[in-house]
Structure formats: C-alpha cells, structure tokens
Amino acid sequence: MQSERSEPLLNSNLQAILVLLVAVVIVFLILFRNLFFQSTYLLKSFGELSVDPEIAFNNNKPTFLEFYAEWCEVCKEMAPKVSALKEEYEKDINFVFLNVDNQKWDNYIRKFEVNGIPQVNLFDRKGNLISTFIGKQEEIKIKDSIDQLESEITSNEEFVNPEFSYIKENKNHEVTPRSHG
Fold first, then answer.
1. In this structure, are 14 and 41 located in the same domain?
2. CB-facing half-sphere around the CA of 111: CA atoms within 13 A
3. Residue 107: partners with Cβ closer than 8 Å, 6 or more residues away
4. Can you give the residue range of the structural domain that contains 19?
5. 181 assigned to some structural domain
6. 46 an active-site residue?
7. How far apart are CA 128 and CA 75, in angstroms?
8. How far apart are CA 122 and CA 152, in angstroms?
9. Average pLDDT of the chain, as a whole number
C-alpha cells in the first residue's frame, strides 16, 4: 500500500519540477530575447529607419544602399555589423535599406541588377556607384570603402562573396487565368 501512495507523490513532484523548468525557460527567453533575436529585430528595423531612396540620391550626401530580406540568413548575420556602421556614419551618409520582398522596390532591384543578397551599393555625393558588395562581407572592408567615399575616388569596384542568398521569385503579383486579374 505504501508504493501506491509514493507514486502520486513522485508524479506531483515531477510535474512541479517540469512546470518550474518551463517557467525558468520562459523568463530566460523574455529577459534575453534581444540577444537571441537581435539580428531579426535589426533587419525589421532597417526598413523603418531607412532614408527614402529618392531623397538619398538628391541630398548631396554619399549613400549606403542595402538590399536585404528578413528570411535571408546571411542578411541576419550581417545585420549587427551594418547597424554598427550606421551608428558610426549616419550623420554623414544616407542609409537606405530596401527589402527585396517589397514590390515597391522592384525598379531599384532591376536597376542595380540584384541577384543575391545582401547587396550593398555605395554611392558618392553625386550618385555615382563606387562599390558593390554582394554576400557576406567583413565590416572592415565596407568601412574602408565608406572612408574612400569622402576622397571621391570614382572607381567602381565589386566585391562578391559566394556566401549569399538568392532572391526568391515573388509570385504575389503574377496574373494567372484563375486570378481574374
């Protein structure tokens, strides 16, 4: 008879431990969510903090133009580096972030021949393309190119790293016989 009494006690102890463990994990995730989800949060905020491209190309400041997507793992990995560059240079340079999944930016995607992301284009004050970075890049390499923007060197360099994401085809605006559109 004693074994029957100890089994429910064990079950209730295990349940209490399990509930406590789940509670600790939830509290931990809430307290440290920025650490775990920082890059995703940064990517979402880029679009909100972006200078409009039409303004950027007409205000006589150099421009940092990045094409990205929230699903792009390389973009997420680069986000903290790009955020650091933005904090350092945002007074002197326009920072424009265009999400390739937004149809609104299709004309820029075609104009700058974006096939892989992240793609960063650096422009001088006059709107001349100075450097293009495709894929994962070292922060120092982009920083060096930003520093050269001030010297107004007009060479057009392209830096391609094979570690990038291909743009997914956006079929939201395709017309099919069944779409009645």
1. no
2. 10
3. none
4. 2-31
5. no
6. no
7. 24
8. 11
9. 79
Asked if 9 and 71 sit in the same domain, the reply is no
Would you call 72 a catalytic residue per the annotation?
A: yes
Q: How many CA atoms lie within 13 A of 57 on its CB side?
A: 9
- The answer, yes or no, to whether residue 180 has pLDDT greater than 60, is no
16 & 99 share domain: no
**Pick the residue with more confidence: 96 or 48?**
96
Domain shared by 23 and 94, yes or no: no
Instruction: Clarify whether residues 60 and 95 are in a common domain.
Output: yes
* Contact call for residues 148 and 130 (beta carbons, < 8 A): yes
List the catalytic residue out of 69, 75, 120, 130. 75
Give the count of domains, the chain. 2
pLDDT tens profile 109-166:
999 999 889 999 999 998 999 999 999 998 899 999 898 887 655 556 656 555 555 6
87 and 12 assigned to the same domain: no
pLDDT digits (tens, 9 = 90+) for 7-24: 676 687 788 888 888 888
Return the exposure string of 30-47: e unless at least 16 CB atoms fall within 10 Å of the residue's CB, then b: eeeeeeeeebeebbeebe
> Which residue in 42, 56, 72, 93 is the catalytic one?
72
